[in-house]
Amino acid sequence: MKGFAMTAPNKVEWIEKEKPKAGPKDAIIKPTALAPCSSDIHTVWEGGLDLQGEIRILGHEAIGIVDSVGSEVKDFKPGDKVIVPAITPNWSAKASQCGFHQHADCLLGGYQFTFVRDGSMSEYFLVNDADANLAIQPDEMSDESALMLTDMVTTGFSGAENANIQIGDNVAVIGIGPVGLNAVAGAELRGAGRIFAVGSRPDCINIAKKYGATDIVNYREGDIVEQILAETNGVGVDAVVLAGGNAETFAQAIQMTKPGSTISNINYFGTQNYKNAGDILPIPRDAWGAGMAHKTVVGGLCPGGRVRMEKLVNVVESGRFDPGLLITHRFKGLEKVEDALYLMKDKPRDLIKPMVKID
Ligand code: NAD
Ligand code: ZN
């Protein structure tokens, strides 16, 4: 079978591989729709994953049809339409039992696609622990929505969840690409008061407003700390979700919050994001109350697995949120994942998320 792989740092190409075979707990999936992720760009072109010379097929955002299952898989059968989360951990790992399945077996080890096995940009791909890592895509759910649940929605929502947003809290979401937009939606679902969406692209601002943003702060038109403090009578917000920006933005997040607030990061801090900061993310001393401001900084990889996906399906089926709005560019045919990936890399201003449909 063919797959679209990272064959070396900065290098992607089509390769031929054996079709994977399901072990007792695994499922083999034939993808019906795929999306590239900004994380694929970090992986290939920004040194995001050290594959130590391994050639791996890319892709971790997929929905598909079950092709075959292993002898111990109980709840899924060939022909089922499934949602495959980006995070498919080993659920019996100690970290999973401690509540951090994202780090099963090693740091970020819940992220198996590309990292420890081939990803989904191929004719078929393997999902470990199928009963715990697949969810059924309801017939009435659009492919667009189902596909966005796999990574963008679970990540954005986790940003809002980790920010510990309480009803009526004022929240800033910095960076409103697809992940940040889902953090806006997550903040709205958690009952935030004002939601400041920090961004500049008109299409993103449009969706941010649809998802619940009450205020738009343009980071290209002035200091965002000053803008947010001015809007909150100098007090600052109760929570910040970081879904874009760099080391300087991280420091600004701490400066725009009240004592007792939470700064929840879901952004990937690659070396290029550290801009003048070496390998250290700066915490401004004053805004930190010289260490006594009761501010919490938390950063996390998105939750995955079956139950998480089923809960997200529930949110969409209730009609309270439409993640399908994030798809701005559509492709048809597996071979188009290459174009979709390069589109992600080039990031035209009107791009939020591309989707590749496969027959
Ligand atoms: P994206 O690049 O589409 O969106 C980031 C947005 O931030 C862009 O719109 C960009 O214009 C904006 N931005 C850049 N600098 C800014 C600044 N100084 N202030 C405000 N906004 C600024 O990426 P995305 O797909 O939305 O993903 C966001 C981040 O989340 C990426 O770093 C990605 O790797 C990461 N990610 C994390 C997880 C996770 O599990 N934690 C999962 C998926 C993606
Ligand atoms: Zn991703």
How much of the polypeptide forms β-strand, as a percent range? 15-25%
* Integer count of domains: 2
What structural class should be given to the helix and strand makeup? alpha/beta
Radius of gyration: 20 Å
Give the averaged pLDDT, no decimals: 96
Instruction: Count every beta strand, where a strand is a DSSP E run of 2 or more residues.
Output: 16
Global morphology: globular
CATH class of the largest domain: Alpha Beta
Order of helices and strands: EEEHEEEHEHEHEHEHEHEHEEHEHE
Q: Might you state the CATH topology name of the largest domain?
A: Quinone Oxidoreductase, Chain A, domain 1
Helix share, percent: 25-40%
Number of helices: 10
Which ions and ligands are bound to the chains? nicotinamide-adenine-dinucleotide, zinc ion
Termini separation (Å)? Answer: 16 Å
**Quaternary:** single chain
Q: Find the CATH superfamily of the largest domain.
A: Medium-chain alcohol dehydrogenases, catalytic domain
